[in-house]
TrEMBL record:
GO terms for cellular component: L-cysteine desulfurase complex; mitochondrion. Belongs to the complex I LYR family. InterPro entries: Complex1_LYR_dom, Complex1_LYR_LYRM4, ISC_assembly_LYR. CDD domains: Complex1_LYR_LYRM4 (cd20264). This is Complex 1 LYR protein domain-containing protein. Pfam families: Complex1_LYR. GO terms for biological process: iron-sulfur cluster assembly. Residues 10-66 form the Complex 1 LYR protein domain. It comes from Sistotremastrum niveocremeum HHB9708.
Length: 96
């Protein structure tokens, strides 16, 4: 039987998953995985059952490894940036 993950271990897993989610080069994938990570960890926030916490930690650790591989592949084949991602000069109302 695996031990119950500590709060620090869960927070470390959350931060690693969020960091990996932010490393996607594709805007849509990046925002989807950030949102999904926050929702997933928020759902387990007040959980007290040790079995559920252990199961969650194991599954989330496996998903983190898959997410890391997917982010790596996405970085290799990332396309051009979308219009919403481009940083340019800000135009003001009176500018022509």
């Amino acid at each position: 039987m695996a031990s119950v993950p500590s709060r620090a271990a869960l927070l470390q897993l959350y931060s690693n998953t969020l960091r990996t989610s932010k490393s996607f080069s594709s805007y849509n994938f990046r925002n989807y995985f950030i949102r999904r990570t926050r929702d997933t960890f928020k759902s387990i926030q007040n959980e007290q059952d040790p079995d559920k916490l252990t199961r969650f930690y194991d599954e989330a650790s496996k998903e983190l490894e898959v997410l890391r591989r997917a982010a790596l592949i996405n970085g290799m084949y990332g396309g051009q940036k979308l219009v919403v991602e481009r940083e340019g000069a800000v135009r003001l109302r009176g500018d022509t």
